[in-house]
Amino acid sequence: MSVEIPYITEPRPDTGLTLAKLGVWLFLASEVMLFGAFFSSYVVLRAGNTWQDFAFGPAPVVQDAESDEGDEWAEEEAASDETEDADEHAGHDHSAHDASAHAADNAGSGHDDHADLHSPLQTAIPMATFNTIVLITSSVTVVLAYASLLLNNLGRFRFYFGLTIALAFVFLGVKYVEYTSKFAHGYFPATSPLLALYFTMTFLHVLHVIGGIVVLAYLVGPGTKMWKTNPAQFTGRIEAVGLYWHFVDLVWIFLFPVLYLL
Amino acid sequence: MSHDHSPEAVKKEVRVYLGVFGALLVGTIVTVLASYLKVSTALGIFIALVIATVKGSLVACFFMHLRSEKIMILAFLLLMLVFFVVLMILPIGMQMDTFTDNISP
User: Fold this and answer.
1) Would you tell me the crossing angle of helices A231-255 and A19-46 to the nearest 10 degrees?
2) Which residue in B18, B74, B80, B87 has the most chain A C-beta atoms within 10 A of its own C-beta, making it the best mutation to test that interface?
3) CA A257 to CA B35: how far, in whole Å?
4) Inter-chain contact A44–B95, Cβ cutoff 8 Å?
5) Is the pLDDT of residue B19 over 90?
6) By C-alpha distance, which of A130, A128, A65, A118 is closest to A92?
7) Is there a contact between A140 and B88 if contact means CB atoms under 8 Å apart?
8) Do A162 and A39 have their domain in common?
9) Residues A34-57: what's their mean pLDDT?
10) Do B76 and A43 touch (CB under 8 A)?
11) A200 pLDDT exceeds 50?
């Protein structure tokens, strides 16, 4: 005996939505709050501070606005904001650290007048830009796959979905190179709070990409059997996973400038 | 996608997707170029977020079909937006608040 679940292919009359679509959108709304918490934390840490403020850990906490320590840190920050002088920071209190050596490398690479010269993520900008283009392209291939199903072209759907999975693996490969490069330069989550957030946010995003690959692979593989028995439900599934994949792209669209370019 | 799934409507929609794809690529280039502007960190964050918001809106409206989505989805997202804004503003507001710094123990 089988129980037929209602509103899988036909929308509910009151909402005008299938259960799958409503469920996916609610899931994505919760995901926005998950990533939003990390974005909020990052903006709080990043605003008013430069990467070098966190080179050896958190910036000194101003216990008392009247104290000498607090004034010293405030003056230091003001000097940082006003002059934006890279060399001054390179010879600062963390000159022996790898971060400084890496910053010096950056200084010679034509970014001398950038506001935040010591960002250890600046060298990853080309890779991150490439990954942005890869994810945007994968978003297009997913929506083209969905359109192919609406045109009853399963072969083209398979091609576009396969291309999406390939692009997802390209993204992961570039991410692997980026992470190993960071580790090789001595940048770990424990290096600074900003790097901890960078690794947390990007790896959380990577986990979403991996989850997406699993679902995409199932739907382009064994899951395709449903196309013969219930094409409307299969198309609904593709639309749902497409929404998820676009969300993964959407998160990266915000992660890219916030983490790498600022 | 609009609820018209006729082959003509789908093919027309595909052309829109490709146009959005081009706009997103241009937006990515503009984002990278804008990062080289000599501006303060706060202004830099603002510019980057404006461009990212435009790109994100394109993805949401066209690829995720929000422009033709049911009112219930939009209502859920509006509710989410309210909570998201609170989530972003609360900690930033707490950091900018200097009232507690001036309270002597």
Assistant:
1) 10
2) B80
3) 8
4) yes
5) yes
6) A118
7) no
8) yes
9) 77
10) no
11) yes
Min Cα separation B75/chain A (Å): 11
Q: Contact B52/A256, CB-based, under 8 Å?
A: yes
Q: Looking at chain B, which residue has its C-alpha nearest residue A31?
A: B80
B59 and B77 inside one domain: no
Domain containing B24 equals 1-64
Q: Is the pLDDT of residue A113 over 50?
A: no
pLDDT at A145 over 90: yes
Per the structure block, which two tokens stand in for A106? 């950056």
Give the ipTM of the model, two decimals please: 0.87
Give Rg (Cα) of chain A. 23
Q: Which residues of A touch B28 (CB under 8 A)?
A: 129, 132-133, 136, 256
* Other beta carbons less than 10 A from residue A250's beta carbon: 25
Is there a contact between B92 and A47 if contact means CB atoms under 8 Å apart? yes
pLDDT in tens, B38-87: 887 678 778 888 999 999 999 999 999 999 899 999 999 999 999 999 98
Taking CA atoms, B72 is separated from A34, B56, B75, in Å, by 22, 21, 5
Domain range spanning residue A229? 19-45+122-261
Domain count, chain A: 2
Both structure tokens of A123: 């060298």
The CATH number of residue A129's host domain is 1.20.120.80
Residues B42 and B81 in one domain: no
Per-residue buried b or exposed e for B19-30, using 16+ beta carbons within 10 Å of the residue's own CB = ebbeebbebbee
Of A15, A44, A253, Cβ closest to residue B92: A44
Residues of B in contact with A242 (CB under 8 A): 63
B15 with B51, same domain: the answer is: yes
For A126-137, what is each residue's pLDDT tens digit? 899 999 999 999
Picking from A25, A37, A249, the nearest residue to B76 by CB comes out as A25
Cβ–Cβ gap B64/A246 under 8 Å: yes
> What is the SS3 string spanning A42-102?
HHHHHCCCCHHHHCCCCCCCCCCCCCHHHHHHHHHHHHHHHHCCHHHHHCCCCCCCHHHHH
Do B59 and B25 lie in a common domain?
yes
The answer to whether A88 and A96 have CB atoms below 8 angstroms apart is no
Residues making up chain A, counted from first to last: 262
The predicted pLDDT at position A231 comes to 94
